[in-house]
Q: What sequence folds into this?
C-alpha cells in the first residue's frame, strides 16, 4: 500500500461521495434551507487542504511564485471556511434562543 | 506504511465521517447548530491531518510555513470579521461571496499545478491525461463559480443591473460562443498543454454571462446551484492534488447542493432550465400586466387598529419589505399586544419569503419571534377562511391570487398564500410598485383588501400605539 491514490480509487470515492450527498439531504424543513446552504458552502472550502498541499510541496524547491499562489488560494479557502461556519452558527444560534430572554437591540 | 501515514488515513476517515454527520444534522432544527460545529471541527481535524502527514514525511519547509501562516491569518481574519459584521438581511449576498471565494481557491490550486506540474498528484495519474482533465474541470468550474457568485452578489446588493442587451436573445449566442471557446481551450490544454489562460478568461466570462441575465427573484436558486458547483470544483481539485478527502467532501457538497437547488425550484414553481436560460421573469411580463390599479381602498393605521381590536385570529405575512424596513422587532411587539388582548397570532411563512428559502425564519428568529408561531405555507393555507385579519408586510408576489386563477400570468402555478380567503386583508406597502416578478397584484383590488401605505416600521409603530390607546392587551408588553 502506498500513499498514491490510484485513478480507480479516486473514481470510486467520487461516485460514493456523490451518492452519500444525495442521501444525506432528504427532507429539509424550509426553515433550514438558508443555514444548510451556508453550512454546505463552508464545507466546500475543503480546498484549504489542496492549497496547503500546494504550498508544502512547493517548499523544498523554493518556488516562491507557487507558494504565493498557494497562499492566496489558502486565504480564499479559509475566508470561505471560517466565514461560512461562523455565519451559519450566527444564524442557527437564533433558533435556539429562549423567548423568555428577550432583549431589544435597538 | 509509516506511522504518519496510518495517522493520516485514520484522521481522514474520521473527518469524512464527521462531515457527513454534520451535513445530516444540519437538516434538523434541533441538531443543526451542533452539526455545524461538528463539521467545523472535522475541517480543523482534516487540516491537522495534512500537516501531520507532511511533518512525518520529510517536514515542512520554513518558507512554506511563512506562506501558510500568512494565508491563514489574512483569509481567516477577513472571514471572521465578515461573518460577524454582515446584517442578517444580506445573508444571500454573503453566502454568494463566501462561495465565490471557495471556487477561486480551487481555480488557483489547479492553476498552480498546471504551471508547475511537479507539485501535482503523486499517484499513477501524475502528468497524465486524467490530471490534465482534472485541471481543466477545476479551472472551468472554479472560474464560473467565482465570477458567477460575484455577479450574483452584485445584483443582490443592487450594484449591478442587467444591461438591456443581456435580456435579448443575443446573450445566448454570446454564452454559446464563450462555452465553445472554453471547450476549445480545454481540448488544447489536455492535448498540448496550451490554452490555460484562454480557459481561465473564457470560463470567467461565461460565469458572468450566464448569471447577469438572471432576475433578482431567481438569484437564490442560482446561488444554491453555484454552491453545488463549488463542491464540484473542490472534488476536481481533489483529483488534481490526489486527496480522497477532498473528493468525498466536494462530491457530497456538489450532490447535496443539487438536491437543495431542486427543492428551491419546486418551491418557486420554476424549472432549473427556466431559471438559467429563461431570463428575468419581469422582462417578459412588463407589457402585459402593468395596467393601472382600480378600486383600491386604503386606510390609516388607526382604522387598521380598530379592526384588529375585535379580531380573534390574526396572521402576519412577512416579506422582504419587512426586513428592509428593519421592522421584525416591532411586528413582534404588535403581535404580543394582540396576544395579550386574547387573539391568536401566527406568521405565515412562504417557502421563498425573504430572498432565500428559510431567510425569513432567520430574520424573525433574530427578533425573538417564537418558533411555534411560524407556520409554513401548506399548514396555514387551509386556515385562512377562519382567519379574521391578515396583515401582509412587504410581501407581494407570494400573495398574488393570479398565481392560482390567471393562467396567463407569469406567476401562474407558483404556490402562494391564499390570504384573500380571510375576512379582512391589510397590505402594508410603501406604494403600488410591483414585486420582484414585476407584475400587478390583483389582491390589492379585492373588496376585502385595504392598503396601508407607508414604511412597514412606521406603520407598525403607529399601529402599536393605536392598539395601546384602545386598551388592547391592557398591560402593554414590555420592551427593553
A:
Amino acid at each position: 500500500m502506498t500513499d498514491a491514490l490510484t485513478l480507480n480509487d479516486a473514481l470510486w470515492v467520487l461516485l460514493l461521495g456523490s451518492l452519500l450527498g444525495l442521501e444525506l439531504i432528504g427532507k429539509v424543513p424550509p426553515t433550514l434551507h438558508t443555514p444548510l446552504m451556508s453550512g454546505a458552502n463552508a464545507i466546500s472550502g475543503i480546498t484549504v487542504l489542496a492549497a496547503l498541499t500546494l504550498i508544502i510541496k512547493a517548499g523544498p524547491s523554493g518556488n516562491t511564485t507557487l507558494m504565493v499562489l498557494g497562499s492566496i488560494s489558502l486565504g480564499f479557502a479559509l475566508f470561505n471556511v471560517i466565514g461560512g461556519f461562523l455565519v451559519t452558527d450566527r444564524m442557527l444560534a437564533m433558533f435556539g434562543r429562549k423567548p423568555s430572554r428577550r432583549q431589544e437591540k435597538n | 506504511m509509516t506511522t504518519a501515514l496510518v495517522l493520516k488515513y485514520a484522521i481522514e476517515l474520521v473527518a469524512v465521517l464527521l462531515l457527513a454527520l454534520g451535513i445530516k444534522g444540519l437538516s434538523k432544527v434541533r441538531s443543526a447548530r451542533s452539526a455545524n460545529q461538528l463539521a467545523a471541527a472535522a475541517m480543523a481535524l482534516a487540516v491537522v491531518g495534512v500537516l501531520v502527514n507532511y511533518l512525518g514525511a520529510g517536514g515542512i519547509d520554513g518558507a512554506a510555513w511563512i506562506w501558510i501562516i500568512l494565508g491563514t491569518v489574512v483569509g481567516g481574519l477577513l472571514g471572521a470579521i465578515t461573518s460577524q459584521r454582515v446584517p442578517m438581511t444580506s445573508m444571500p449576498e454573503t453566502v454568494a461571496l463566501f462561495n465565490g471565494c471557495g471556487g477561486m481557491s480551487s481555480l488557483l490550486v489547479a492553476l498552480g499545478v498546471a504551471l508547475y506540474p511537479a507539485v501535482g498528484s503523486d499517484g499513477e495519474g501524475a502528468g497524465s491525461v486524467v490530471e490534465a482533465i482534472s485541471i481543466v474541470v477545476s479551472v472551468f468550474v472554479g472560474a464560473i463559480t467565482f465570477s458567477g457568485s460575484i455577479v450574483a452578489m452584485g445584483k443582490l446588493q443592487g450594484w449591478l443591473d442587467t444591461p438591456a442587451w443581456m435580456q435579448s436573445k443575443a446573450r445566448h449566442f454570446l454564452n454559446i460562443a464563450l462555452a465553445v471557446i472554453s471547450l476549445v481551450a480545454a481540448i488544447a490544454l489536455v492535448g498540448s498543454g496550451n490554452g490555460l489562460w484562454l480557459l481561465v478568461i473564457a470560463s470567467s466570462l461565461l460565469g458572468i454571462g450566464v448569471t447577469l441575465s438572471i432576475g433578482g427573484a431567481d438569484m437564490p436558486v442560482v446561488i444554491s446551484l453555484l454552491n453545488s458547483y463549488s463542491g464540484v470544483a473542490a472534488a476536481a481539485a481533489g483529483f488534481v492534488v490526489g486527496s480522497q478527502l477532498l473528493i468525498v467532501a466536494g462530491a457530497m457538497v456538489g450532490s447535496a447542493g443539487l438536491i437543495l437547488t431542486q427543492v428551491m425550484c419546486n418551491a418557486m414553481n420554476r424549472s432549473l432550465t427556466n431559471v438559467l436560460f429563461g431570463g428575468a421573469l419581469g422582462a417578459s411580463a412588463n407589457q402585459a400586466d402593468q395596467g393601472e390599479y382600480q378600486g383600491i381602498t386604503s386606510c390609516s393605521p388607526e382604522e387598521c387598529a380598530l379592526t384588529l381590536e375585535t379580531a380573534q385570529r390574526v396572521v402576519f405575512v412577512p416579506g422582504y419589505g419587512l426586513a428592509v424596513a428593519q421592522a421584525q422587532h416591532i411586528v413582534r411587539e404588535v403581535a404580543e399586544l394582540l396576544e395579550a388582548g386574547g387573539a391568536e397570532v401566527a406568521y405565515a411563512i412562504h417557502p421563498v419569503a425573504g430572498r432565500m428559502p428559510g431567510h425569513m425564519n432567520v430574520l424573525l428568529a433574530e427578533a425573538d419571534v417564537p418558533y411555534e408561531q411560524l407556520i409554513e405555507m401548506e399548514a396555514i393555507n387551509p386556515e385562512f377562511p377562519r382567519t379574521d385579519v391578515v396583515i401582509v408586510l412587504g410581501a407581494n408576489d407570494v400573495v398574488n391570487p393570479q398565481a392560482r386563477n390567471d393562467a396567463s400570468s407569469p406567476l401562474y402555478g407558483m404556490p402562494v398564500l391564499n390570504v384573500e380567503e380571510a375576512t379582512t386583508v391589510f397590505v402594508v406597502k410603501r406604494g403600488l410598485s410591483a414585486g420582484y416578478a414585476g407584475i400587478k397584484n390583483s389582491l390589492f383590488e379585492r373588496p376585502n383588501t385595504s392598503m396601508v401605505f407607508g414604511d412597514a416600521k412606521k406603520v407598525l409603530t403607529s399601529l402599536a400605539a393605536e392598539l395601546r390607546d384602545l386598551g388592547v392587551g391592557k398591560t402593554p408588553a414590555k420592551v427593553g
In short: Residues 280-289, 476-480 of chain B have pLDDT under 50 and may be disordered. Strands of chain B lie at 313-318, 344-349, 374-376, 389-393, 424-429, 449-453. The domain at 290-469 of chain B is CATH 3.40.50.1220 (Rossmann fold).
